[in-house]
Design brief:
By secondary structure, the protein is α/β, with parallel strands linked by helices. It is built from 21 helices and 30 strands. The strands form nine sheets. A seven-stranded mixed beta sheet has the order 5-4-17-16-18-19-20, sandwiched between helices. A five-stranded parallel beta sheet has the order 7-6-8-11-12, with helices on both faces. The relative contact order is 0.11. The structure holds adenosine-5'-monophosphate-propyl ester (PRX).
Length: 651
């Protein structure tokens, strides 16, 4: 939770409000305000009704079975996710509609209609089957943002195999941890990826990652070709294009899956060093993803939807793959970076394809603000009609900049709060119904019950803050942590029985609007990416020169939070600038570039309680230049003065 009172004051003195325009309201999918009350009165009926937007092979016989903390939704219902994403759109009007418009790094683009996509997915499913993949098997996917990524996910889902996508920015060590935890036999990767004109050596990383794991086969997409430097290991590695060529061209029958069968595992960071395998199931997850496309994003058949996230994170799973395709949308998928070849790349793409709904992260918006409006102004953005944000709290200035410079004061903004665990947007305005306030995610979506509670679990009054909670089950909720149900129960339902604890602090204003304040645990949010402080600390102490490390997130103008590490060195090791560089590099090697500490400070001691617990709260105060909080529990209070001195000397 933000401990910075100034930040809270700025947020809460916000009195600007933006009501939906009459024109938007009139056409909105959800424009009956009674929906909130009706859904709250009978959430099961609401979710049963929303589920009718999917195609079921066999109808469900019961909507919900809730044995806290375990939920089952759509009992006995049978369906297949890929059938819902692609096959059902291959007949009728959407057959030749563009499904995926893929924009690669400059010079590369491709359009897949629903029919074409269906054929690709079927061939890929045949290919996976020929490699021995069966229902329930785990398939790891470590690919850049190329069409083969969603195709591979959908091929898995068509067979009933469980995919686990690992963001291509993760290191080989992180990939290996996830392979071992998921116990996967097949890894799908690429020879290399493109990033700002440079190559990312995915296959080389994969080679290191699969050593001493159950991986038997590595399926390699050729993105770069000969220049990639990737080598193939005889007997283990096979090229995607070779197997695709050999695959039969007849349709691949969709495996009828139980609504509660696992669709995917996606790893995310928690408060321990070990990432959690978040488990999502077929029916509930898909209903959540599909419903939010129609409600929060007001999706219509002629929209061009662009979510700028990477599919390696949950935002990309839900709002590039499962949500838009299940709703029969045309989506844009972009491989590259926002500033390559130039800083107007996003706006160029919006203009080029006539994007109507755009979804991005506050950190990107703050970067665009820093670059200045001239890049946006180069392009005609008249096609836009709705914009969203996700991943971290959006500060009102960034919200206003987005509203003025991108949305031209015409487009509603949906600030969507959710998590890997929640599967789909939980708190967000429905754009035709809810008046927005810059910086507030407003209220829970229909059918989702959210509250802010105090330490005892009692709801706080308007005007107060506390723990954000979700008080009732919802379809797209995680079902468990892969092979660690105990951790699932403890992490999310350990504080308040039967009530889901997301780990965020929130403030409820006088109008009952929700203002998300950030994490209350040892998780840092860097540019919308969740990183556990323990993961970074483990990476640091893994280095031969490090004795101890304490990692905190401090406020950062662009990234939201930045990683600061306080490190004590082993006897006889000198604190040099070279060592700082080496340690940063070590963290990148161990986790990935997103976990690189912004700053590393060497110190002789860390502030600890008498029971030897590191007091990160005090380190945060130091890094943010605030008055130091209560130090009475410190074993040695002089450590703080020393650290403060060191920190200011550094600046
Ligand atoms: O702290 C919240 C923040 O991101 C966390 C979830 O991270 P992850 O599982 O990686 O999923 C990110 C994208 C869904 C949350 O616990 N967060 C996400 N969206 C918002 C947010 N904080 C404030 N406002 C948001 N709109």
């Amino acid at each position: 939770m933000t401990t910075n009172p100034e930040k809270l004051d700025t947020l809460l003195s916000e009195d600007r409000a933006f009501a939906p325009s009459e024109a938007f309201k009139a056409k909105a999918n959800f424009n009956d305000p009674g929906i909130y009350e009706r859904a709250a009165a009978d959430p099961e009926a609401y979710w049963a009704e929303q589920a009718q937007n999917l195609t079921w092979f066999e109808p469900f016989t019961k909507t919900l079975e809730w044995n806290p903390p375990h939920a089952k939704w759509y009992l006995n219902g049978k369906l297949n996710a890929t059938y819902n994403l692609v096959d059902r759109h291959r007949v009728g009007e959407r057959k030749n509609k563009a499904a995926i418009i893929w924009e690669g790094e400059p010079g590369d683009s491709k359009v897949f209609t629903y029919d074409m996509l269906g054929r690709e997915v079927d061939k890929a499913a045949h290919m996976l089957k020929s490699l021995g993949v069966k229902k329930g098997d785990r398939v790891m996917i470590y690919l850049p943002m190329i069409p083969e990524l969603p195709v591979a996910m959908m091929a898995c889902a068509k067979i009933g195999a469980i995919h686990s996508v690992v963001f291509a920015g993760f290191s080989s060590a992180s990939l290996k941890d996830r392979i071992l935890d998921a116990d996967a036999k097949l890894l799908i990767t690429a020879d290399a990826g493109w990033r700002r004109g440079n190559q990312v050596p995915l296959k080389n990383n994969a080679d290191v990652a699969v050593e001493d794991t159950p991986i038997e086969k590595v399926l390699v997409v050729e993105r770069i070709g000969k220049d990639s430097g990737a080598t193939m290991q005889e007997g283990r590695d096979v090229f995607w294009h070779d197997l695709i060529k050999a695959a039969p061209s007849d349709p691949f029958p969709a495996e009828p899956m139980d609504a509660e069968d696992i669709l995917y595992i996606l790893y995310t960071s928690g408060t321990t060093g070990k990432p959690k395998g978040i488990v999502h199931t077929t029916g509930g997850y898909l209903v959540g993803a599909n419903t939010s496309m129609r409600s929060v994003f007001d999706l219509k058949d002629d929209d061009i939807f662009w979510c700028s996230a990477d599919i390696g994170w949950v935002t990309g799973h839900t709002y590039i793959v499962y949500g838009p395709l299940s709703a029969g949308a045309t989506l844009v998928m972009y491989e590259g970076a926002p500033d390559f070849p130039d800083r107007d790349r996003f706006w160029e793409i919006i203009e080029k394809y006539g994007v109507t709904i755009f979804y991005t992260a506050p950190t990107s918006i703050r970067t665009f603000m820093k670059w200045g409006p001239q890049y946006v102004e180069r392009h005609n953005l008249d096609s836009l009609r709705l914009m969203g944000t996700v991943g971290e709290p959006i500060n009102p200035e960034a919200w206003m900049w987005y509203h003025e410079h991108v949305g031209h004061e015409r487009c509603p903004i949906v600030d969507t709060w959710w998590q890997t665990e929640t599967g789909s947007a939980m708190i967000a305005p429905l754009p035709g119904l809810v008046t927005t306030k810059p910086g507030s995610a407003t209220r829970a979506v229909p059918g989702v019950a959210v509250d802010v509670v105090d330490e005892n679990g009692d709801p706080v009054q308007p005007g107060a803050g506390g723990y954000l909670v979700i008080t009732k089950p919802w379809p797209s909720m995680l079902r468990t942590i892969w092979r660690d149900d105990e951790r699932f129960q403890k992490t999310y339902f350990g504080k308040y029985p039967s009530i889901y604890l997301p780990g965020d602090g929130a403030h409820l204003d006088e109008d009952r609007y929700l203002w998300i304040l950030g994490r209350i645990d040892d998780v840092i949010n860097v540019s919308g990416h969740r990183i556990g402080t323990m993961e970074v600390e483990s990476a640091l102490v893994d280095h031969k020169s490090v004795a101890e490390a304490a990692v905190i997130g401090r406020s950062h103008e662009i990234k939201g939070q930045a990683i600061t590490a306080f490190v004590t060195l082993k006897e006889g090791i000198s604190a040099t600038d070279d060592l700082v560089t080496e340690l940063k590099h070590h963290v990148v090697e161990k986790i990935g570039a997103m976990a690189r500490p912004e700053e590393i400070l060497f110190t002789a001691e860390l502030p600890k309680t008498r029971s030897a617990k590191i007091m990160r709260r005090l380190l945060r105060d130091i890094a943010e230049g605030r008055a130091i909080g209560d130090t009475t529990t410190l074993a040695d209070p002089s450590v703080i003065d020393m650290l403060k001195q060191q920190y200011s000397d550094k600046e």
